[in-house]
Protein backbone atom coordinates (compact mmCIF):
# COMPACT_ATOMS: atom_id res chain seq x y z
CA UNK A 1 0.00 0.00 0.00
CA UNK A 2 1.30 3.45 -0.96
CA UNK A 3 0.68 6.25 1.54
CA UNK A 4 0.75 9.96 0.75
CA UNK A 5 3.73 11.91 2.05
CA UNK A 6 3.36 14.87 4.37
CA UNK A 7 4.25 17.26 1.56
CA UNK A 8 1.67 15.67 -0.74
CA UNK A 9 -1.01 16.15 1.91
CA UNK A 10 -0.01 19.79 2.34
CA UNK A 11 -0.25 20.36 -1.41
CA UNK A 12 -3.71 18.75 -1.54
CA UNK A 13 -4.79 20.92 1.38
CA UNK A 14 -3.61 24.05 -0.41
CA UNK A 15 -5.36 23.26 -3.71
CA UNK A 16 -8.64 21.81 -2.41
CA UNK A 17 -11.39 24.41 -2.87
CA UNK A 18 -13.79 23.05 -0.24
CA UNK A 19 -11.00 22.60 2.30
CA UNK A 20 -9.78 26.15 1.77
CA UNK A 21 -13.30 27.55 2.15
CA UNK A 22 -13.77 25.93 5.56
CA UNK A 23 -10.21 26.78 6.55
CA UNK A 24 -11.29 30.41 6.31
CA UNK A 25 -14.27 29.49 8.49
CA UNK A 26 -11.78 28.07 10.99
CA UNK A 27 -9.83 31.32 10.82
CA UNK A 28 -12.98 33.20 11.82
CA UNK A 29 -13.82 30.65 14.53
CA UNK A 30 -10.40 31.02 16.11
CA UNK A 31 -10.75 34.81 16.03
CA UNK A 32 -14.11 34.61 17.82
CA UNK A 33 -13.09 34.17 21.46
CA UNK A 34 -15.49 31.78 23.21
CA UNK A 35 -14.52 30.97 26.79
CA UNK A 36 -17.17 29.62 29.14
CA UNK A 37 -15.00 30.23 32.20
CA UNK A 38 -14.98 33.95 31.36
CA UNK A 39 -18.53 34.04 29.93
CA UNK A 40 -17.19 35.43 26.66
CA UNK A 41 -18.49 34.90 23.12
CA UNK A 42 -20.70 31.85 23.70
CA UNK A 43 -23.88 33.19 22.08
CA UNK A 44 -21.98 34.76 19.19
CA UNK A 45 -20.01 31.63 18.29
CA UNK A 46 -22.99 29.30 18.64
CA UNK A 47 -24.98 31.43 16.21
CA UNK A 48 -22.02 31.78 13.85
CA UNK A 49 -21.82 27.98 13.72
CA UNK A 50 -25.56 27.91 13.05
CA UNK A 51 -25.04 30.18 10.04
CA UNK A 52 -22.15 28.09 8.72
CA UNK A 53 -24.00 24.77 9.01
CA UNK A 54 -27.18 26.21 7.52
CA UNK A 55 -25.21 27.49 4.55
CA UNK A 56 -23.69 24.00 4.19
CA UNK A 57 -27.16 22.48 3.83
CA UNK A 58 -27.82 21.27 7.36
CA UNK A 59 -31.02 21.63 9.32
CA UNK A 60 -29.93 23.61 12.38
CA UNK A 61 -31.40 24.02 15.83
CA UNK A 62 -29.82 26.29 18.46
CA UNK A 63 -31.11 25.59 21.95
CA UNK A 64 -30.24 28.46 24.26
CA UNK A 65 -32.19 27.29 27.31
CA UNK A 66 -29.04 27.41 29.43
CA UNK A 67 -25.88 29.52 29.67
CA UNK A 68 -24.02 28.16 26.64
CA UNK A 69 -26.26 27.51 23.59
CA UNK A 70 -26.37 23.93 22.28
CA UNK A 71 -26.08 23.53 18.49
CA UNK A 72 -27.60 20.60 16.56
CA UNK A 73 -26.90 20.44 12.82
CA UNK A 74 -28.33 17.57 10.77
CA UNK A 75 -27.47 16.39 7.28
CA UNK A 76 -30.08 13.89 6.09
CA UNK A 77 -29.61 11.05 3.63
CA UNK A 78 -32.36 10.46 1.07
CA UNK A 79 -32.30 6.79 2.12
CA UNK A 80 -35.09 6.34 4.70
CA UNK A 81 -33.23 3.34 6.15
CA UNK A 82 -29.90 5.14 6.46
CA UNK A 83 -27.95 4.79 9.70
CA UNK A 84 -26.68 7.82 11.63
CA UNK A 85 -23.26 9.10 12.64
CA UNK A 86 -23.08 11.74 15.39
CA UNK A 87 -20.11 14.07 15.75
CA UNK A 88 -19.81 15.45 19.29
CA UNK A 89 -17.94 18.76 19.61
CA UNK A 90 -17.55 21.86 21.75
CA UNK A 91 -16.98 25.43 20.64
CA UNK A 92 -15.64 26.78 23.95
CA UNK A 93 -11.91 26.92 24.65
CA UNK A 94 -9.75 27.46 27.69
CA UNK A 95 -8.42 31.02 28.13
CA UNK A 96 -5.18 32.19 26.57
CA UNK A 97 -4.00 34.69 29.13
CA UNK A 98 -0.66 36.35 29.85
CA UNK A 99 0.58 33.37 31.87
CA UNK A 100 1.18 31.43 28.64
CA UNK A 101 3.80 32.31 26.03
CA UNK A 102 2.50 32.49 22.44
CA UNK A 103 4.62 33.19 19.38
CA UNK A 104 1.70 35.04 17.80
CA UNK A 105 -1.66 36.27 19.08
CA UNK A 106 -3.52 33.18 20.34
CA UNK A 107 -6.87 34.12 18.81
CA UNK A 108 -5.35 34.65 15.37
CA UNK A 109 -4.94 31.63 13.09
CA UNK A 110 -1.38 31.37 11.77
CA UNK A 111 0.49 28.86 9.62
CA UNK A 112 4.21 28.15 9.91
CA UNK A 113 6.40 25.26 8.78
CA UNK A 114 3.55 22.87 8.09
CA UNK A 115 1.65 23.63 11.32
CA UNK A 116 -1.54 25.56 12.08
CA UNK A 117 -1.55 27.59 15.31
CA UNK A 118 -4.30 29.17 17.40
CA UNK A 119 -6.33 28.69 20.57
CA UNK A 120 -8.84 25.94 19.83
CA UNK A 121 -7.25 24.72 16.60
CA UNK A 122 -6.98 21.24 18.12
CA UNK A 123 -9.32 21.54 21.10
CA UNK A 124 -11.79 21.65 19.43
CA UNK A 125 -12.63 24.08 16.64
CA UNK A 126 -10.29 22.56 14.07
CA UNK A 127 -12.07 19.22 14.34
CA UNK A 128 -15.42 20.89 13.64
CA UNK A 129 -14.27 22.44 10.38
CA UNK A 130 -12.30 19.35 9.26
CA UNK A 131 -15.35 17.09 9.67
CA UNK A 132 -17.70 19.60 8.07
CA UNK A 133 -15.25 19.79 5.17
CA UNK A 134 -15.46 16.00 4.75
CA UNK A 135 -19.26 16.12 4.63
CA UNK A 136 -19.27 18.91 2.06
CA UNK A 137 -16.61 17.20 -0.09
CA UNK A 138 -18.67 13.99 -0.14
CA UNK A 139 -21.86 15.86 -1.03
CA UNK A 140 -20.08 17.79 -3.78
CA UNK A 141 -18.73 14.55 -5.25
CA UNK A 142 -21.76 12.28 -4.80
CA UNK A 143 -24.77 14.58 -4.41
CA UNK A 144 -26.24 12.63 -1.49
CA UNK A 145 -25.14 11.01 1.76
CA UNK A 146 -25.39 7.26 2.44
CA UNK A 147 -25.70 7.98 6.15
CA UNK A 148 -27.39 10.65 8.25
CA UNK A 149 -24.84 12.93 9.90
CA UNK A 150 -25.58 14.98 13.01
CA UNK A 151 -23.24 17.46 14.68
CA UNK A 152 -23.94 18.22 18.35
CA UNK A 153 -21.85 21.10 19.67
CA UNK A 154 -21.85 22.29 23.28
CA UNK A 155 -20.23 25.39 24.74
CA UNK A 156 -19.08 24.41 28.22
CA UNK A 157 -16.84 21.35 27.82
CA UNK A 158 -13.85 23.11 29.34
CA UNK A 159 -15.95 23.82 32.46
CA UNK A 160 -17.13 20.26 33.14
CA UNK A 161 -19.82 20.45 30.42
CA UNK A 162 -22.17 22.54 32.52
CA UNK A 163 -25.80 21.84 31.49
CA UNK A 164 -24.86 19.25 28.84
CA UNK A 165 -26.88 16.60 30.68
CA UNK A 166 -29.91 18.92 30.58
CA UNK A 167 -29.54 19.57 26.86
CA UNK A 168 -29.16 15.85 26.13
CA UNK A 169 -32.23 15.07 28.22
CA UNK A 170 -34.20 17.55 26.12
CA UNK A 171 -33.02 16.05 22.82
CA UNK A 172 -32.07 12.42 23.52
CA UNK A 173 -35.28 10.94 22.10
CA UNK A 174 -34.43 12.53 18.76
CA UNK A 175 -30.70 11.77 18.91
CA UNK A 176 -30.73 8.17 20.18
CA UNK A 177 -30.14 5.22 17.89
CA UNK A 178 -26.94 6.35 16.13
CA UNK A 179 -24.67 3.68 14.71
CA UNK A 180 -21.54 5.58 15.79
CA UNK A 181 -20.61 8.66 17.80
CA UNK A 182 -17.29 10.22 16.84
CA UNK A 183 -15.78 12.07 19.79
CA UNK A 184 -14.50 15.64 19.71
CA UNK A 185 -10.81 15.00 19.14
CA UNK A 186 -7.81 12.69 19.20
CA UNK A 187 -4.21 12.51 18.08
CA UNK A 188 -1.40 10.49 16.59
CA UNK A 189 1.08 9.07 19.09
CA UNK A 190 4.86 9.51 19.16
CA UNK A 191 5.24 6.66 16.64
CA UNK A 192 2.85 8.28 14.17
CA UNK A 193 0.03 5.84 14.83
CA UNK A 194 -3.51 7.18 14.96
CA UNK A 195 -4.92 6.70 18.44
CA UNK A 196 -8.51 5.46 18.41
CA UNK A 197 -9.86 5.42 21.94
CA UNK A 198 -13.17 4.63 23.59
CA UNK A 199 -13.22 6.20 27.00
CA UNK A 200 -11.83 8.67 29.48
CA UNK A 201 -11.42 9.07 33.21
CA UNK A 202 -13.88 10.99 35.32
CA UNK A 203 -12.98 13.58 37.91
CA UNK A 204 -14.06 15.19 41.15
CA UNK A 205 -12.45 18.48 42.13
CA UNK A 206 -12.70 20.11 45.52
CA UNK A 207 -11.06 22.55 47.91
CA UNK A 208 -9.65 21.53 51.29
CA UNK A 209 -9.76 24.43 53.75
CA UNK A 210 -8.42 24.68 57.30
CA UNK A 211 -8.83 27.52 59.78
CA UNK A 212 -6.82 27.06 62.98
CA UNK A 213 -7.25 30.46 64.70
CA UNK A 214 -8.79 33.90 64.30
CA UNK A 215 -5.40 35.45 63.46
CA UNK A 216 -1.87 34.36 62.57
CA UNK A 217 0.14 33.55 65.74
CA UNK A 218 3.77 34.29 66.62
CA UNK A 219 5.86 31.28 65.62
CA UNK A 220 7.43 31.03 69.09
CA UNK A 221 4.30 29.03 69.98
CA UNK A 222 5.09 26.44 67.28
CA UNK A 223 6.03 23.79 69.81
CA UNK A 224 2.68 23.90 71.57
CA UNK A 225 0.14 25.20 69.01
CA UNK A 226 -0.75 23.47 65.75
CA UNK A 227 -0.91 25.64 62.64
CA UNK A 228 -3.33 25.41 59.72
CA UNK A 229 -0.35 24.64 57.48
CA UNK A 230 0.87 21.57 59.36
CA UNK A 231 -2.67 20.37 59.98
CA UNK A 232 -3.50 20.46 56.26
CA UNK A 233 -0.20 18.87 55.23
CA UNK A 234 -0.71 15.98 57.64
CA UNK A 235 -4.32 15.57 56.52
CA UNK A 236 -3.20 15.38 52.89
CA UNK A 237 -0.44 12.88 53.68
CA UNK A 238 -2.92 10.64 55.46
CA UNK A 239 -4.89 10.14 52.22
CA UNK A 240 -2.09 8.84 50.02
CA UNK A 241 0.44 6.03 50.30
CA UNK A 242 4.04 6.50 49.26
CA UNK A 243 3.38 4.52 46.06
CA UNK A 244 0.56 6.88 45.03
CA UNK A 245 -2.44 4.70 45.90
CA UNK A 246 -5.30 6.32 47.78
CA UNK A 247 -5.72 5.44 51.46
CA UNK A 248 -9.49 5.81 51.46
CA UNK A 249 -11.64 3.02 52.86
CA UNK A 250 -14.01 1.36 50.41
CA UNK A 251 -12.70 3.17 47.33
CA UNK A 252 -10.97 0.39 45.42
CA UNK A 253 -13.82 -2.04 46.13
CA UNK A 254 -16.08 0.15 43.97
CA UNK A 255 -13.83 0.09 40.89
CA UNK A 256 -15.01 -1.74 37.78
CA UNK A 257 -12.06 -3.96 36.85
CA UNK A 258 -10.89 -3.99 33.20
CA UNK A 259 -11.81 -7.06 31.20
CA UNK A 260 -9.30 -9.21 29.36
CA UNK A 261 -9.77 -7.42 26.01
CA UNK A 262 -9.26 -4.00 27.58
CA UNK A 263 -5.97 -5.09 29.17
CA UNK A 264 -4.85 -6.75 25.93
CA UNK A 265 -5.52 -3.57 23.94
CA UNK A 266 -3.22 -1.59 26.23
CA UNK A 267 -0.48 -4.20 26.23
CA UNK A 268 -0.67 -4.38 22.42
CA UNK A 269 -0.90 -0.72 21.50
CA UNK A 270 0.75 1.38 24.23
CA UNK A 271 4.43 1.90 23.49
CA UNK A 272 5.31 4.42 26.17
CA UNK A 273 6.63 3.61 29.63
CA UNK A 274 8.10 5.50 32.57
CA UNK A 275 11.36 6.17 30.72
CA UNK A 276 9.48 8.08 28.04
CA UNK A 277 7.80 10.22 30.71
CA UNK A 278 11.20 10.97 32.24
CA UNK A 279 12.50 12.06 28.85
CA UNK A 280 9.47 14.18 27.88
CA UNK A 281 9.07 16.02 31.16
CA UNK A 282 12.64 16.00 32.51
CA UNK A 283 11.47 14.36 35.72
CA UNK A 284 13.66 14.92 38.77
CA UNK A 285 11.69 12.74 41.21
CA UNK A 286 11.35 8.97 40.92
CA UNK A 287 8.16 7.57 39.40
CA UNK A 288 5.60 5.90 41.63
CA UNK A 289 5.47 2.70 39.56
CA UNK A 290 7.84 1.24 36.96
CA UNK A 291 6.71 -2.30 36.15
CA UNK A 292 5.06 -2.04 32.71
CA UNK A 293 1.88 -3.97 33.53
CA UNK A 294 1.44 -2.13 36.84
CA UNK A 295 2.18 1.16 35.08
CA UNK A 296 -0.56 0.57 32.49
CA UNK A 297 -3.11 -0.54 35.08
CA UNK A 298 -2.39 2.43 37.33
CA UNK A 299 -2.39 5.01 34.53
CA UNK A 300 -5.54 3.86 32.73
CA UNK A 301 -7.63 1.86 35.19
CA UNK A 302 -7.04 3.25 38.70
CA UNK A 303 -7.85 6.58 40.42
CA UNK A 304 -5.28 9.24 41.30
CA UNK A 305 -5.34 11.89 44.04
CA UNK A 306 -3.70 15.13 42.89
CA UNK A 307 -2.87 18.46 44.51
CA UNK A 308 -3.57 21.17 41.94
CA UNK A 309 -2.33 24.00 44.15
CA UNK A 310 -1.79 25.07 47.76
CA UNK A 311 -1.72 28.29 49.72
CA UNK A 312 -0.88 29.24 53.31
CA UNK A 313 1.04 31.79 55.31
CA UNK A 314 3.40 34.58 54.33
CA UNK A 315 4.66 34.64 50.72
CA UNK A 316 6.26 38.07 50.62
CA UNK A 317 9.85 39.24 50.67
CA UNK A 318 12.04 38.45 53.66
CA UNK A 319 10.84 36.67 56.80
CA UNK A 320 7.62 36.79 58.80
CA UNK A 321 7.70 34.46 61.79
CA UNK A 322 4.12 33.26 62.11
CA UNK A 323 1.95 30.19 62.51
CA UNK A 324 -0.58 30.61 59.66
CA UNK A 325 -4.20 30.66 60.77
CA UNK A 326 -5.51 29.45 57.39
CA UNK A 327 -4.46 27.01 54.70
CA UNK A 328 -6.10 25.60 51.59
CA UNK A 329 -5.43 23.13 48.81
CA UNK A 330 -7.13 22.73 45.44
CA UNK A 331 -7.58 19.01 44.91
CA UNK A 332 -8.78 16.48 42.36
CA UNK A 333 -9.33 12.76 42.10
CA UNK A 334 -9.21 11.23 38.62
CA UNK A 335 -11.96 8.63 38.55
CA UNK A 336 -12.48 5.31 36.77
CA UNK A 337 -15.71 3.37 36.09
CA UNK A 338 -17.48 2.41 39.29
CA UNK A 339 -16.59 5.64 41.12
CA UNK A 340 -19.16 8.41 41.53
CA UNK A 341 -17.78 11.95 42.04
CA UNK A 342 -19.79 12.93 45.11
CA UNK A 343 -19.58 9.47 46.66
CA UNK A 344 -15.78 9.61 46.38
CA UNK A 345 -15.77 13.02 48.08
CA UNK A 346 -17.97 11.64 50.86
CA UNK A 347 -15.56 8.73 51.34
CA UNK A 348 -12.62 11.15 51.59
CA UNK A 349 -14.46 13.23 54.18
CA UNK A 350 -15.21 10.13 56.28
CA UNK A 351 -11.58 9.04 55.99
CA UNK A 352 -10.32 12.40 57.20
CA UNK A 353 -12.60 12.20 60.22
CA UNK A 354 -11.41 8.66 60.90
CA UNK A 355 -7.78 9.84 60.63
CA UNK A 356 -8.42 12.62 63.16
CA UNK A 357 -8.65 15.56 60.75
CA UNK A 358 -12.25 16.64 61.28
CA UNK A 359 -11.29 20.34 61.06
CA UNK A 360 -10.72 20.10 57.31
CA UNK A 361 -13.62 21.55 55.32
CA UNK A 362 -14.23 19.99 51.88
CA UNK A 363 -15.86 22.16 49.22
CA UNK A 364 -17.07 20.39 46.04
CA UNK A 365 -16.35 22.29 42.82
CA UNK A 366 -17.11 19.93 39.90
CA UNK A 367 -17.43 16.29 38.93
CA UNK A 368 -17.73 14.01 35.90
CA UNK A 369 -18.14 10.24 35.76
CA UNK A 370 -15.85 8.05 33.67
CA UNK A 371 -16.56 5.84 30.66
CA UNK A 372 -14.70 2.91 29.09
CA UNK A 373 -15.24 0.71 26.02
CA UNK A 374 -13.58 -2.49 24.84
CA UNK A 375 -13.83 -1.13 21.27
CA UNK A 376 -15.59 -4.21 19.89
CA UNK A 377 -18.71 -2.55 18.41
CA UNK A 378 -18.97 -3.24 14.63
CA UNK A 379 -19.05 0.48 13.76
CA UNK A 380 -15.83 1.05 15.75
CA UNK A 381 -14.13 -1.96 14.14
CA UNK A 382 -15.10 -0.43 10.79
CA UNK A 383 -13.36 2.85 11.73
CA UNK A 384 -10.25 0.94 12.82
CA UNK A 385 -9.96 -0.96 9.53
CA UNK A 386 -10.48 2.16 7.40
CA UNK A 387 -7.97 4.19 9.42
CA UNK A 388 -5.22 1.65 8.72
CA UNK A 389 -5.31 2.78 5.09
CA UNK A 390 -4.37 6.37 5.99
CA UNK A 391 -1.57 6.03 8.55
CA UNK A 392 1.67 4.28 7.53
CA UNK A 393 2.54 3.54 11.17
CA UNK A 394 -0.89 2.00 11.75
CA UNK A 395 -3.35 2.60 14.55
CA UNK A 396 -3.30 2.36 18.34
CA UNK A 397 -6.60 1.16 19.79
CA UNK A 398 -7.17 2.13 23.43
CA UNK A 399 -10.17 1.30 25.65
CA UNK A 400 -9.72 4.60 27.50
CA UNK A 401 -7.43 7.56 27.96
CA UNK A 402 -6.18 9.11 31.18
CA UNK A 403 -7.80 12.45 30.38
CA UNK A 404 -11.27 13.59 31.41
CA UNK A 405 -14.38 14.55 29.48
CA UNK A 406 -18.16 14.04 29.37
CA UNK A 407 -18.15 10.71 27.54
CA UNK A 408 -20.18 9.02 30.25
CA UNK A 409 -22.78 11.80 30.12
CA UNK A 410 -23.11 11.48 26.35
CA UNK A 411 -23.14 7.68 26.31
CA UNK A 412 -25.71 7.46 29.11
CA UNK A 413 -28.04 9.77 27.18
CA UNK A 414 -27.50 8.54 23.60
CA UNK A 415 -26.27 4.94 24.01
CA UNK A 416 -24.17 4.98 20.83
CA UNK A 417 -20.72 3.37 20.45
CA UNK A 418 -18.07 6.08 20.91
CA UNK A 419 -14.72 6.36 19.15
CA UNK A 420 -12.29 9.24 19.65
CA UNK A 421 -9.68 10.08 17.01
CA UNK A 422 -8.53 13.25 15.36
CA UNK A 423 -6.00 15.79 14.12
CA UNK A 424 -3.78 16.28 17.16
CA UNK A 425 -0.16 15.27 17.65
CA UNK A 426 1.98 14.58 20.76
CA UNK A 427 3.04 18.23 20.83
CA UNK A 428 -0.30 19.91 20.02
CA UNK A 429 -0.10 21.75 23.36
CA UNK A 430 -3.80 21.74 24.13
CA UNK A 431 -4.52 24.27 26.91
CA UNK A 432 -0.98 25.62 26.53
CA UNK A 433 0.82 28.24 24.47
CA UNK A 434 1.19 27.73 20.70
CA UNK A 435 -1.61 25.15 20.45
CA UNK A 436 -1.18 23.54 17.04
CA UNK A 437 -1.97 20.79 14.54
CA UNK A 438 -0.10 19.68 11.46
CA UNK A 439 -1.57 20.62 8.09
CA UNK A 440 -1.01 17.09 6.85
CA UNK A 441 -2.89 15.61 9.82
CA UNK A 442 -5.75 18.05 9.30
CA UNK A 443 -6.15 17.03 5.66
CA UNK A 444 -5.69 13.31 6.33
CA UNK A 445 -8.51 13.50 8.87
CA UNK A 446 -10.78 15.05 6.24
CA UNK A 447 -10.02 12.15 3.89
CA UNK A 448 -10.53 9.59 6.66
CA UNK A 449 -13.93 10.99 7.67
CA UNK A 450 -14.99 11.09 4.04
CA UNK A 451 -14.03 7.43 3.64
CA UNK A 452 -15.95 6.48 6.79
CA UNK A 453 -19.00 8.20 5.32
CA UNK A 454 -18.50 6.31 2.04
CA UNK A 455 -18.34 2.97 3.89
CA UNK A 456 -22.02 3.33 4.74
CA UNK A 457 -22.89 3.21 1.05
CA UNK A 458 -22.52 -0.56 1.17
CA UNK A 459 -22.98 -1.05 4.93
CA UNK A 460 -20.84 -4.15 4.64
CA UNK A 461 -19.04 -4.03 7.97
TrEMBL record:
Entry superkingdom: Bacteria
Q: Which Pfam families does the entry link to?
A: M20_dimer, Peptidase_M20
Identify the keywords attached in UniProt to this record, alphabetized: Hydrolase, Metal-binding, Protease
Location of the Peptidase M20 dimerisation domain:
199-354
Q: Which InterPro entries match?
A: Cyt/Met_Dipeptidase, Peptidase_M20, Peptidase_M20_dimer
Q: What is this protein called?
A: Peptidase M20
- Organism per entry: Streptococcus oricebi
Amino acid sequence: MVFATEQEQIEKFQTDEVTQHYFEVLRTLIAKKSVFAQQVGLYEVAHYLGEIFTAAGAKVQIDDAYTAPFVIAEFKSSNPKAKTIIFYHHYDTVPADDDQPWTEAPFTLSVHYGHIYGRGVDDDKGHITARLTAVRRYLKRMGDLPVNITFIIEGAEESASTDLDKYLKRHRKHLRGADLLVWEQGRTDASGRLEISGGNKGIVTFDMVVKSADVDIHSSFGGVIDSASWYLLNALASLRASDGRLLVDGLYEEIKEPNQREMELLETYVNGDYKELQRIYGLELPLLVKDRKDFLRRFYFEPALNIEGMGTGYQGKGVKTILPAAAFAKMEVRLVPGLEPKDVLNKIERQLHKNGFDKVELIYTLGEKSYRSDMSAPSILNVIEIAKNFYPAGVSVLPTTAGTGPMHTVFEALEAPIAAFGIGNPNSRDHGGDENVKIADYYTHIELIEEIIASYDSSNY
